[in-house]
Hints:
Layout: H1 17-20, H2 55-69
Amino acid sequence: MVCGEGEGTEGDCVVPVRSAGIEGVETLVLDGVFHSMSKVGTYGVKAEPPWYGSGDVVDAWLGALVGEAG
């Protein structure tokens, strides 16, 4: 984790929410979505919770990205 202490920290199990935003930029927080597509401590075991690249999750953030670019 990039913040040191992880206990009680809101985020995606890697980046805390408080470190994920940039001042002046719209922020999109997706509840229940995690940073990795693999189970913690592995690279080949698929994670149970959705990650940012899961099909339904991509649909949730892609619209915001396209809206910003367009």
